[in-house]
# Entry
Amino acid sequence: QVQLQESGPGLVKPSETLSLTCTVSGGSLSSYYWSWIRQSPGKGLEWIGQIYFSENTKYNPSLTSRVTMSIDTPKNQFSLKLSSVTAADTALYYCARGRRFCANGLCSSYMDVWGKGTTVTVSS
Amino acid sequence: EIVLTQSPGTLSLSPGERATLSCRASQTVDNNYLAWYQQKPAQAPSLLIYGASTRATGIPDRFGGSGSGTDFTLTISRLEPGDFAVYFCQQYGSSPWTFGQGTKVEVK
# Structure
């Protein structure tokens, strides 16, 4: 059974870059979309973006100027970098697997497996 | 982006009762690409329903999803103790994917 585990610093200084990694165990990165989502009391659940293979990325327009996602297939990991962070980026960050689904010529993905989440606080 | 509005904010019910949760979209959700998640305290959201009405693997049939276009419903036919949680809807028909603010189902 596939499991996802987020890892990374729990404290990031303002203006620096938040870096998180999601390690996938019990399954392959191939044929799935991989997403990052965050949750905070003020904003609720917010989808950050997704990556499919190494080149195909889709980011939330509200964050696109600061977000970079990447995949490390040999390590079975994918990563999130969020630059120029502020206190508003303080949240619980989740990684999730997206299962591809196509109907009526429109393909998308729903998130069927989530990691437990990791808390990131932005503070000096 | 599509804004999802869930109602009610809180639903107070007893075990065995029926729960009806609503999710309304600000514009049509393409292909009814609408999912429902359950979140219990200190846990990640867990997929219940995708495609508006298809139960995810292992989800009991007391959970049912319905609706299309802009109006969607999650129904829990008979609440069990483990069903008291927060429920979120999420659309993945058009980017950016967006979530509703959640409905809390609590014990009356």
